[in-house]
Automatic annotation (TrEMBL):
Domain ABC transporter: 2-227
PROSITE patterns recorded: ABC_TRANSPORTER_2 (PS50893)
Protein name per the record: ABC transporter domain-containing protein
Cross-referenced InterPro entries: AAA+_ATPase (IPR003593), ABC_transporter-like_ATP-bd (IPR003439), P-loop_NTPase (IPR027417)
Keyword terms, alphabetized: ATP-binding, Nucleotide-binding, Transport
Family to which the UniProt record says this protein belongs: Belongs to the ABC transporter superfamily.
Native species: Planobispora takensis
Length: 238
């Protein structure tokens, strides 16, 4: 389970995240939605120990990320801008990550096959297309066979077949009792993939519940999103 308890992060006098609390339950896919500048990335960074909250607590499986003994075995993450060294080969990037968490080397080959990158394993990352880079990032997130996945825009750059594979994989992953937190700008994709949603705007949570509950009274998840974020001064765009 993922828990955020009254998380607050300020840059100067302005809070980027203001008293944010939510729970992401096992066995379900939870979409994390919000306009640009709403606080999504800052919240994810605090969950994963990359930013320190000014107030509040972020817990992964009941612990702060920094207290996890082998974090990749507990939580796998894909964050925008957190890519590998461009000159490194794809397989070398994964083997290095595996060694840092005492994961068998063979697992690097297994996840490359899982995401369809076996043929590009020895190619340098700087030669990867956007979609290939995204597949490598997903492979890295899966490396430790974790109980929890935190994914930021996982289908960005993927072709339709890749998007379908991610959607089906995440459904099977959650159905096995694991936890998925999925940040996305794609309303239709989120509506077709997630069970629950957290909506953030202006650094505060404006909705948290099942997709059916959040969409109730609106034509779609997208229309509910714009109505909710407009109430908090959302800019109505991405």
């Amino acid at each position: 389970m993922i828990e955020a308890v009254r998380l607050t992060k300020r840059y100067g006098k302005k809070p980027a995240v203001d008293d944010v609390s939510f729970t992401v339950r096992p066995g379900r896919i939870t979409g994390f939605l919000g306009p640009n500048g709403a606080g999504k990335s800052t919240t994810l960074r605090m969950l994963l120990g990359l930013d320190h909250p000014d107030d509040g607590t972020a817990l992964i499986a009941g612990q702060r990320y920094r207290d996890l003994r082998h974090p990749l075995r507990t939580v796998g993450a894909l964050l925008d801008g957190a890519g590998p060294v461009p000159e490194r080969r794809g397989i070398d990037h994964l083997v290095w990550m595996a060694q840092s968490n005492r994961i068998p080397r063979r697992r690097a080959h297994e996840v490359l096959e899982l995401v369809g990158l076996t043929g590009a394993a020895r190619q340098r990352v700087k030669g990867y297309s956007l979609g290939m880079g995204q597949r490598l990032g997903i492979a890295a997130a899966l490396l430790g066979d974790p109980e929890i996945l935190v994914l930021d825009e996982p289908v960005n750059g993927l072709d339709p077949d890749g998007i379908r594979w991610v959607r089906n994989f995440l459904r099977e992953y959650a159905a096995s009792g694991r936890t998925v937190l999925l940040s996305s700008h794609l309303m239709a994709e989120t509506a077709g993939t997630a069970d629950d949603a957290i909506v953030i705007a202006g650094g505060r949570i404006v909705a948290h519940g099942s997709l059916d509950d959040i969409s109730a009274g609106h034509e779609s998840l997208e229309s509910a999103f714009f109505a909710l974020t407009a109430e908090r001064g959302g800019r109505g765009g991405w």
